[in-house]
Design brief:
Elements lengths: L8 H10 L3 H11 L6 H13 L2 H17 L1 E2 L6 E2 L5 H4 L4 E8 L2 H8 L6 E5 L17 H9 L12 E4 L5 H13 L6 E4 L15 H9 L2 E2 L1
Parallel strand pairs: 3-4, 3-5, 5-6
Antiparallel strand pairs: 1-2, 6-7
Length: 222
């Protein structure tokens, strides 16, 4: 009788998930769907949940449930909010006549951490990328235009005097900034952009506070 052939690496890898109960396999699969999480990281997260107390595990599950049920987009700026309007739009100490346009809520957070900007925001929820099927209609550009043309839609009904383009310094970000400048050209508002203190090709969320501060202070007309 010929000796059994050694198992291939794929066979061994396939056998590992089968060693887990079905519920654990489902948890692994869900963790592995998260961005930046590979199979090994998914296993570490799953094992952490398994070893945690019931209270800690349920607290995590409840936090996920609550954030999906309660968090929405602000009706004015499209930042994350747990009410109709976000805390920044409701803040009476902010300069509501100046709007800084960013791509994503995480970019807004990066700028807020500098403490250098006291205006309000508008979150596009993306950037123009025609090759990926992302056109102007998929972003919140119309909402920005309406805030300018109809002041009563802006925070506290304050007319907009300046729009700062804070798009990421990438090919798509620059294209989006040019498109916005063209759309807003006939509105009469001052249009500026963050200075090139930001490294080309580097997203706002990875920029240092010093670089973001310099970019805000050195913004210039488009």
């Amino acid at each position: 009788m010929p000796p059994a052939s050694p198992r291939s690496r794929n066979d061994r890898n396939d056998a590992v998930p089968r060693a887990y109960p079905e519920t654990v396999r489902r948890l692994l699969d869900e963790f592995a769907r998260l961005p930046g999480i590979g199979r090994r990281s998914a296993e570490r997260l799953a094992f952490h949940i398994l070893k945690a107390s019931n209270d800690d595990a349920m607290a995590l599950a409840k936090a996920i449930e609550d954030v999906k049920n309660a968090v929405r987009y602000c009706s004015i700026c499209f930042n994350f909010s747990d009410g109709e309007r976000c805390a920044i739009c409701n803040d009476q100490a902010r300069d509501r006549s100046t709007i800084l346009v960013v791509e994503q809520p995480r970019d807004l957070i990066a700028i807020e951490q500098t403490g250098m900007y006291r205006g309000v925001y508008h979150v596009l929820l993306g950037r123009l990328a025609p090759l990926e099927g992302v056109g102007p209609e998929t972003l919140t550009i119309d909402g920005l235009v309406m805030r300018i043309k109809k002041p009563e839609i802006n925070c506290a009904g304050v007319p907009v005097r300046e729009v700062v383009l804070g798009l990421n310094p990438s090919f798509e970000g620059d294209g989006t900034a040019l498109y916005l400048a063209d759309r807003l050209a006939d509105t009469g508002v001052r249009i500026t952009r963050l200075a090139r203190g930001l490294s080309s090709g580097r997203d706002l969320e990875y920029a240092t506070k010093a670089a973001l501060s310099d970019a805000i202070e050195g913004r210039r007309p488009v």
